[in-house]
Amino acid sequence: MIKKLNKDCPFCNPGADREIIAESESEYSIYDKFPVSKGHALIIPKKHCSDYFDLKFKEQSSCILMLNKVKQIINEKYKPDGFNIGINVGSAAGQTVNHVHIHLIPRYKGDVKNPEGGVRNVIPAKAKYLK
After folding, report:
1. Lowest-confidence range among 16-20, 85-89, 98-102?
2. 39: closest CA among 67, 80, 96?
3. What is the pLDDT of residue 111?
4. What's the pLDDT tens digit per position in 23-71?
5. How is residue 14 annotated by DSSP?
6. How many helices (H) and strands (E) in the chain?
7. For the domain 20-126, what is the CATH superfamily, name and number?
């Protein structure tokens, strides 16, 4: 059961309409409300904390175990060709919800013209570094 820790936080108080993919004692996973691709999921600690690096190592590890579990579920349901994993920490990095969450983004062949650089594309001019 998700505890309602911070009444103004959408991740402390997910709507009843949000599908829970998986849940443990310390975190849960839902599909992203504004998905980048089919199956885009979020892994969210139940503890209200805005910065991933402020979580204790045990809490970070627990999130990674959930990430691995959700990856298996997404693999079976959507059969993607790859994944991107991302955590935005701070507004300069694009964080818009001030509660730690890990993006698990399934990738599909042909979903972009050239996926080279992967997460490096957050700064497009740095994506093509092999040339």
Report:
1. 16-20
2. 80
3. 95
4. 999 999 999 999 999 999 999 999 999 999 999 999 999 999 999 999 9
5. -
6. 1, 5
7. HIT-like (3.30.428.10)
29 alpha-carbon distance from chain centroid: 8
Contact status, residue 100 vs residue 55, Cβ threshold 8 Å: yes
- The residues spanned by each domain of the chain are 20-126
What 3 state SS string does 96-131 have? CCCCCCEEEEEECCCCCCCCCCHHHHHCHHHCCCCC
Strand partners, 102: 43
- Annotated active-site positions, please? 101
Per-residue b or e along 74-89, where b marks 16 or more CB atoms closer than 10 Å to that residue's CB: beeeeebeebbeebbe
How far apart are alpha carbons 44 and 55 in whole angstroms?
12
From edge to edge, which strands make up the β-sheet containing 102-107?
Answer: 20-23, 27-31, 41-45, 102-107, 82-86
Q: Do residues 87 and 35 make contact, with C-beta atoms less than 8 angstroms apart?
A: no
